[in-house]
Fold this sequence. Notes:
By secondary structure, the protein is of the alpha+beta class. The protein is 42% helix and 23% strand.
Amino acid sequence: MWKTRRRLVIAATVVVCVLGGGVASWASDAALAVQASEHATPRQMTITYLRDARWGNCPATLALTLAHTDPWCNDLLAYAVGLPPLVSYRVTGNAQFVPRAEGGANEECVQSTVRAPGFQGPGIAATFQWGWCWTKTAHGWRLYDQGQG
C-alpha cells in the first residue's frame, strides 16, 4: 500500500515539475516574442503567432495581441469553452498595407490558411482563409485585428 502511495507522490511531483517548467518556459517565450516583435516583419510575426497558438503558448499570443481583439490559442480553457483547435496553418502571402482610414490604424495584414475543425460561422469549412493585421506600437508589432475579409 505504501509503495503505491509513494509511486503516486513521485508521479505527481514529476507532473507538477514538468507543467511548472512548461509554464515558466512559455513565460520566457512570451518575453522573447515581445522583444523580437520590435525587429520582425509582419509576416514573421504571423508565423510566430500561429506557431505559438498551435502549440498552446498562450502567454506569447496574449502578449502580442492588443486588448480589443481576442488572442487565438490552443489551451485547456479554449477546449473547455468550445473554441476550435488550430490544427494546422500556412502563411500564404506577404503583408499588405491597410491605411488608418480603412482599418482604424495603420495595419500590415498577412493572409493565411488555417485548419480549425469546428470553427463556427456562416459557410466556414474546417480549412479557411484568415487574416492577421499588425500595427506598429512603441513596443513592436501587435495584433490589431484578425478575421476574414
